[in-house]
Structures are given as structure tokens and as C-alpha cells.
Design goal:
Length: 362
């Protein structure tokens, strides 16, 4: 299984010494931007996206479009909102600012009873970062995106500079950030419908189901006439972005899906958009999720009947950069089937009973 994420991170980590990595771990430096973005930053007046703000306008426009798109089928659901999600960027550069770094460290570390202050700790951390490759802008500090149901404080989506830079590295920078945002917004739709577990699945497969469904929700929005209305080369870019964020750690409880499985989930979502009868024909997230669950086995098994759509098929491997060849393809996505379970899924309109096969390895 070709893993482009490992390739990218391997290049970054290859330029760092063991001492660098030990210091990052000991001080929790790679956690600081996440903690700040999730638990300290509750303002959106100065947000930007991408290390240099290069994706700001695209992402803000996509957020507005997502709110409008998912409000169509949920307009009559009491309490179902799409406009209460705070969108913030996650930047390594925030660690330069003691006014941001110190309150973040106060959340992370209780220094009561010590002779050590959070200001002293912040100064030490800044000195460490300044000795490392790319300093504050190193993508490993912000290589992620999150959907966070914050309760009374409001919901939140966090977009890291590192994941955006990675998408540019993979030549998926044009549509990739919108795909990631749509994926995280899809998680908020799952939160809103209180998506139940299928039951009887290992934790790793339940997580994968949840993540692949978010991929499909994102693709549905991006390809739908009422959403981003992507076609032609933009559809290929979208599938390439999905392929790029897959991983090969099938036994990890947090596994999101292999590159080809994520590409297949996107193809399936695009197919649902292609079947829409017009701009007003937007599926309710609960109905979309129920239909997805009926096709989950085929998506994880890379069944061609669901991994293709009217705009083309799921890519079988990484796309080459100009002037570069790469013969490595993601061919190790075979699955091991161990048991069959009958699952009843209830949509808002009907109850559907399907038979599913559990998959335990890639």
C-alpha cells in the first residue's frame, strides 16, 4: 500500500536529529498549536489559512457554501444548524506570540507547587523551535485538521497549515483544502444527526466507517450542482486529494482508510451528486449516511461498481509531479473477510436491512 503521507513526513523527519524529536516529544511542542486552536482561540476576526494566508479566501468561501448547502435538506429539522461552526486556522507561527503561547501552556501544564513559571517554559520552547528546520513553520506542528463539538461554546473546525502544505506537495493544492474542509464539515453533520455506531464492528472499522463517510459527504457537496459543482479536471483533483490523505495502518484504531478506499468513498459521493435531479435535490445527512452504510462493504472492498461514477474512476495510484515519474501504486488494498452480520439501518423515511461483511485487515 503506497502511503504518500509517510513519504512526506519521512522527508521532514529525515532532516531532524534524534535530539530534536526527543525535545518535541518531551515538551509536547507538536501538541501546542492544536491545543491553542481547539481550547484557547475563540475569535475568528483575524483568521487566515495556509502558512502565508494563501488559502484564506478559498476556504472562507467554501465554508459559506457548505453552510448554505447543508441548510437545504435540514431547514425543517428543529435545532439543526449549519451556521454555528467556528472556523479557525492552526499555525505554528502562533507559538511565536507569548500572548498565545503562555495561555496555551497554562491549559496543558499545571506548574503549581514548582518554581517554574509558564513564561519560563514558553521561552524555553521558543528557543528549541528556533533551532529546528523551518522553525515555527515546520509542517509537522500543524499536520492535521479537526472537527470539534464544543457544546455550549459552539462547534469548531480547525485547519492546519501543515496539512495544506502537504496537499500542495501532492499537487492537490487547488481542490484539496476544500475537500479537507468539507470532510470536517461532514463530521459536524454526523454530530448533528447523532450518527449511531453500526454495532458489532471492531473499533478500527467503526472509525474507518465514520471517516470514509465524511469523505463521501465532502465529495457530495463538492460535486453537487448546489455545492461547488466541480467537473472534469477538478473532479480528478478531488479524487487525487482523497487518495493523498489515506494511510496504510489498517490495524490502528484511528485508521481513516487506505488511499484507494478514501478515493473510492469520494467516487461514491460524487456518484450521489451526479444522481441529483437538480440544485434543490440535496439528501438529508441521515439519509445519506444510511445509504452509505449499505455500500460500506463495497467501498472498503474497492468494488468497481461503487468506485466509479459518471465523471470517471477512482485513481489507482499517486499522480506524478511535472517532470517526475513514480511507478509505485497502491495495490495492496486486499481485504480479509471474517464474518457476516445483518444490520438494520433506519433512515428518516424507511428501515433497510442489509448484510455486511466485517473486514479486519488491508
Amino acid at each position: 500500500c503506497f502511503n504518500p503521507i509517510e513519504e512526506f513526513l519521512g522527508q521532514l523527519l529525515g532532516g531532524m536529529s534524534d535530539d530534536d524529536l526527543n525535545l518535541i516529544s518531551a515538551y509536547g511542542i507538536d501538541q501546542i498549536p492544536m491545543v491553542y486552536s481547539l481550547f484557547v482561540d475563540w475569535h475568528d476576526h483575524d483568521e487566515y489559512f495556509g502558512t502565508f494566508g494563501e488559502e484564506t479566501q478559498e476556504i472562507l468561501s467554501a465554508q459559506d457554501a457548505l453552510e448554505e448547502f447543508w441548510s437545504k435538506p435540514t431547514a425543517f429539522d428543529g435545532g439543526f444548524r449549519t451556521d454555528n461552526i467556528l472556523l479557525v486556522g492552526m499555525h505554528g507561527a502562533d507559538m511565536k506570540d507569548l500572548g498565545k503561547l503562555i495561555p496555551t501552556l497554562e491549559v496543558m501544564y499545571d506548574l503549581n507547587g514548582t518554581n517554574y513559571t509558564h513564561t519560563e517554559l514558553a521561552t524555553e520552547i521558543q528557543a528549541i523551535i528556533q533551532t529546528m528546520p523551518y522553525e515555527y513553520d515546520n509542517p509537522i506542528f500543524t499536520f492535521n485538521a479537526f472537527a470539534y463539538p464544543a457544546g455550549e461554546e459552539g462547534d469548531k473546525i480547525v485547519m492546519g497549515d501543515g496539512i495544506i502544505e502537504y496537499l500542495h506537495y501532492r499537487n492537490a493544492g487547488m481542490e484539496g483544502p476544500e475537500f479537507i474542509l468539507g470532510h470536517e464539515f461532514g463530521h459536524h453533520m454526523q454530530f448533528e444527526i447523532d450518527l449511531p455506531p453500526l454495532g458489532g464492528l471492531p473499533e478500527s472499522l467503526e472509525t474507518r466507517r465514520y471517516e470514509l463517510m465524511a469523505d463521501a459527504l465532502s465529495a457530495y457537496f463538492l460535486a453537487h450542482e448546489a455545492g461547488a459543482h466541480m467537473r472534469d479536471h477538478r473532479i480528478l483533483e478531488l479524487q487525487h486529494a482523497a487518495f493523498s490523505v489515506g494511510d496504510c495502518n489498517g490495524m490502528d484504531p484511528g485508521h481513516h482508510g487506505t488511499p484507494r478506499q478514501r478515493g473510492c468513498a469520494v467516487a461514491w459521493g460524487i456518484g450521489r451528486a451526479a444522481n441529483a435531479t437538480g440544485a434543490d435535490d440535496v439528501m438529508h445527512p441521515a439519509d445519506f449516511g444510511a445509504l452509505f452504510d449499505q455500500n460500506l462493504d463495497k467501498i472498503m472492498g474497492l468494488d468497481e461498481s461503487v468506485c466509479s461514477h459518471s465523471f470517471g474512476s477512482v485513481p489507482g495510484g499517486p499522480r506524478n509531479t511535472p517532470g517526475q515519474t513514480n511507478s509505485t501504486t497502491d495495490t495492496n488494498d486486499s481485504t480479509t473477510k471474517v464474518s457476516v452480520t445483518t444490520v438494520t439501518t433506519t433512515t428518516r423515511e424507511e428501515t433497510v436491512t442489509t448484510t455486511r461483511t466485517e473486514t479486519v485487515s488491508d
